[in-house]
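REVIEWER CHECKLIST
Item 1: Sequence provided? yes
Item 2: Single chain? yes
Item 3: Sequence as submitted:
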Amino acid sequence: MRLEDANLYLAIEAEGDVEQLRKSCREAILGGVDIIGLTVPHGREEAVPAVLEVGAEEDALVVLRDVARLASGLSANGLELVSGTMSLGQARAIAGVDKIVGVVTRELNDIVLALEVGVDYVVHQAGSGCVRDFASLGMRAGVPLYAGGVSGIDEAAELVANGIYRLCVDAVLIEDGRVRETMAAYSRILGRDMGPE
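Item 4: Structure as written out by the authors:
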């Protein structure tokens, strides 16, 4: 999977049983997820190889959120800066220049700054505000912009109807453990043929 071709992003935390996490990630990818953004709480590092393995097997990108030390030593595709505790230069130095580096933003000014310093992609947690913010950037972006902060399938459909074609879905939106079905529904909104509902 190439970043340029990735339209559906799943933000998930490494919690619970490692085998269940592995299964959930595989089901998400089979449901159309192109990128898994994995948050790794302290003490849960043992879950990372399982997710990386699934990403490699199923041709999906895996980025680690705010854990550059892990991204450099493992085969993660990249690193995502969430908390603002590290600069882009520091992240590239630690993770490696061949890794993808993205950022999570909440404000339009943060997107502009991220673009100026050369990030590879942006997850903008503004929900329906992404339409306004992305439109104000025009063609200046030049990198993939993912609409995050989505409250559910209806808001995602509204975003896509207004010209957004990359979504970031938080794992908390997955209903009743129906990972594949939920992610396939978001994939369909993006215009992908996922077979019968």
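Item 5: Key structural point noted by reviewer: The mean pLDDT is 89.
Item 6: Recommendation: ____
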